[in-house]
Amino acid sequence: GDEAYSGSRSYYALAESVKNIFGYQYTIPTHQGRGAEQIYIPVLIKKREQEKGLDRSKMVAFSNYFFDTTQGHSQINGCTGFN
């Protein structure tokens, strides 16, 4: 069968391994880093807003060199990327 998607048999083996090693109950497989960024960055920014009361327009993400997609996802979600 097609093993490219999260409903595949190998997904369940991966999810179980992640849970056993890291203790994470939930696993979201992504095909590339940019797909993971599209999920992770908005969640991270929203979490900082809610927990710390921060305004996303004043948030800055620092890096010594962003991938284009990382900086783009930060900016799309209202955070400034700074190399």
UniProtKB/TrEMBL annotation:
<dbReference type="InterPro" id="IPR015421">
    <property type="entry name" value="PyrdxlP-dep_Trfase_major"/>
</dbReference>
<dbReference type="Pfam" id="PF01212">
    <property type="entry name" value="Beta_elim_lyase"/>
</dbReference>
<dbReference type="GO" id="GO:0006520">
    <property type="term" value="P:amino acid metabolic process"/>
</dbReference>
<dbReference type="InterPro" id="IPR015424">
    <property type="entry name" value="PyrdxlP-dep_Trfase"/>
</dbReference>
<dbReference type="InterPro" id="IPR001597">
    <property type="entry name" value="ArAA_b-elim_lyase/Thr_aldolase"/>
</dbReference>
<dbReference type="GO" id="GO:0016829">
    <property type="term" value="F:lyase activity"/>
</dbReference>
<feature type="domain" description="Aromatic amino acid beta-eliminating lyase/threonine aldolase">
    <location>
        <begin position="1"/>
        <end position="79"/>
    </location>
</feature>
<keyword id="KW-0663">Pyridoxal phosphate</keyword>
<protein>
    <submittedName>
        <fullName>Tryptophanase</fullName>
    </submittedName>
</protein>
